[in-house]
Write a structure and sequence with these properties.
The longest helix is centred in the middle third of the chain and has 15 residues. The chain is an alpha+beta fold. Helices cover 29% and strands 34% of the residues. Strands 1, 2, 3, 4, 5, 6, 7 and 8 form an 8-stranded mixed sheet that branches. The chain has a domain of 114 residues: Aminopeptidase (3-Layer(aba) Sandwich), CATH 3.40.630.30. Helix 1 packs across helix 2. The two termini are 29 Å apart.
């Protein structure tokens, strides 16, 4: 596998939507509850500051994606936010690390100074370990800040990194 990360193209949308919806349907990481259709997915990914995919440069197979956008406006507009999704069949292959690293570089190029994650579910230990390994700092814990798919609440941990 020759993994590369690039800005998405229109032909990537069906696979991006499938992977995104997989994470939404799992109900343990993203705050969204509505799945994307072809139409809403095109609008959603197209409305981000940047949407990018991790793919095999040889086969074109998409393994994951991220979205990057402002976390706020005006005086806080220098802070961005991102979300990452990796195909469940491809997790554990360090694709997330490639996505986050590329996202940090692109965020810098777009003029952002801080990348902040508002709601990392405390039980998502793989994401938390990755963020900490890459130098993100946990800001604290918000008790019961995330409603899981089964209805129970989990703590969330905001993180940030200067870029």
């Amino acid at each position: 596998m020759e993994l590369t990360v690039r800005v998405y193209r229109e032909e990537d949308l069906p696979e991006m939507i499938r992977i995104w919806n997989e994470v939404v349907e799992e109900g343990i990481a993203f705050p969204q509850e509505e799945i994307l259709s072809a139409q809403t997915g095109e609008r959603f990914f197209g409305s981000q500051t940047c949407s990018a995919v991790a793919l095999d440069a040889v086969t074109g197979k998409i393994y994951g994606l991220y979205i990057l956008h402002p976390n706020n406006v005006g005086r806080c507009g220098h802070i961005c936010n991102a979300s990452y999704a990796v195909d469940s069949k491809c997790r554990g292959l360090h694709i997330g690390e490639k996505l986050v690293s590329d996202c940090l570089e692109r965020a810098r190029r777009y003029g952002f100074a801080i990348l902040q994650f508002n709601a990392v579910v405390a039980a998502n230990i793989h994401a938390r370990h990755l963020y900490e390994r890459l130098g993100f700092v946990q800001l604290g814990t918000i008790p019961k800040g995330f409603r899981m798919k089964d209805g129970h609440y989990e703590d969330i941990c905001p993180y940030y990194k200067s870029i």
